[in-house]
Amino acid sequence: MNSQVVRALKERPLLGVLAVAIAVVFMIDLANLRPAADTSPSAAGGGPGVPTPGAPWTPGTPTTGTSLSPTPGAVPSAGGSTFLPGSPSPHSKPPVPRSAVPHFGLKTQGVTDREVKVGVSYNVASCGGAAALEAMVGPSIAGDMKKSIATYARYVNDTGGIGGRKYLPVIADDGGSGCPEKNIAAAVKMAEEDKVFMAIPGLHIESDYIMNKYKIPVFGGREDPKSLARYGPNGLQVLEPTEPTFEAWASFGRYYLKSKEHTPCLIRIESGAAGDFDTAEKILRAKMADYGLKFKEIYVFKDDPSTAQTQSNTIVASAKKALCDQAWFLAGNPIGLIFLTDAATQNQWFPTWTFTAMTVLTDDDTIASLMDPVQWNNAIGLSYRVPAGYHRMEGNCKAIYEKYNPNDGQSDSASAKIACATILTTAEMMRRAVALTGTLDADTLLLGADAVNNDFFYDATVPLDWQYPSVRGPFKTRAFSHYTVVHWSSTQKKYYFPEYPCYYKVFKANNGGCEDLSRTYHK
User: Fold this and answer.
1) DSSP letter at 332?
2) Most confident region among 27-36, 285-294, 404-413, 512-521 by mean pLDDT
3) Facing residues of 118 across strands?
4) This model's pTM is above 0.90
5) Vertex 250, ends 347 and 522: CA angle to 5°?
6) To the nearest whole number, what is the mean pLDDT of the chain?
7) Using alpha carbons only, what angle is made at residue 420 by residues 419 and 421, rounded to the nearest 5 degrees?
8) How far is CA 270 from CA 250, 278, 301, 332, 442, in A?
9) Is there a cis peptide before residue 241, judged by omega within 30 degrees of 0?
């Protein structure tokens, strides 16, 4: 299957279709949204209810005293429990009188006592050849983004909505990177014409425009330090900012990949509507230098559909000649890796591939299976996920999707995973806002996000945490904070977790930096 897909993809101009390919496109900002997929853990472990190192373990075996199946019809909530449909999310924060809610300088629109409008943009018409890729990989992998958004919104509404309000998605076509003339038009449609309460843009260029001009809440936006300072409290995301992510990645290279003893090279996408990867590269190089590391070569591939395979072959041939034995990959999504890994095998270059979950869906089993299997067997990355059998919310997104679409075979698709993370997370913020203050506006939304303190899961992930201590900040606008190691097994066609239950903000010598987060989800 993998070789057939790769051969088919090579016949199409697809590398630049980084915006819709495999529905990854839906939220290139949400290279922020790491999907949760079933994976096989390693035998490593420790702690209550977790296998001890070296002990035999059967994949899928529940941890001691842990219920891994969510209650039918219930939604994830604070404290790792579930609550009955229609009731407000419980939280550890005391109620806040409306008069005591701080003003964060944002604008409120698109919310009434009956509904709250949420703008969502993606490449609806599959501009730039994206439809060809979606057709090649098939609906079970790509999914149907419109259906997925509607499915999880329906679930939110069937379980009480937002304090009795209907969660109403309003969709805009942003054209992805294939039709740039649609980018800003989509932002204007959501923020000015549809007057949505919150926008979930598909591209950074839209996020920038909305946050700077309209000042409404945005689920997305750039992650670099200068952008975060300019946005202030706006621009909520799931994935961690660039700086701490690259701190983790560089320390991972120093102490885990032993990059100082190897020849690491970086392969990244060019800057464009999907993000500022020039700045990302500078930050990563600086973090690498802090750990005594340096890339021998840096390769930038263009967002050009017509030269996809040629670019891959050129990069691979050069990296092989440079004796690079570690390939660090940075982009909004992993589509380029399909071409690069295929080209690497053709050119007999076999490096260790490494990535972080910032390249959204790279740590997903289904997407990883599209890579060249010989190459990807050498892939070691960083993920926010939790291995199968350990998390009580495991399979939540899939179960919800199949409840409403029992026979379409798309419950494991990229569209379903991304829509689930997006819709359930933004709904939880709003529910907590109402539970805390009795109202929903741009200010109380941020208090709702602030109430999510390592106690909410849309599926089997480490917990989310935003922080809005005051109008003066500093604000923690990105929710994930910890990574663990994932290593691909081409034989099992799954990622395994060699360091579980260790999660890290920063890797240190002798496994320093290891934190066991299982107390947050083993309930």
Assistant:
1) S
2) 285-294
3) 169, 198
4) no
5) 105
6) 82
7) 95
8) 21, 7, 6, 10, 34
9) no
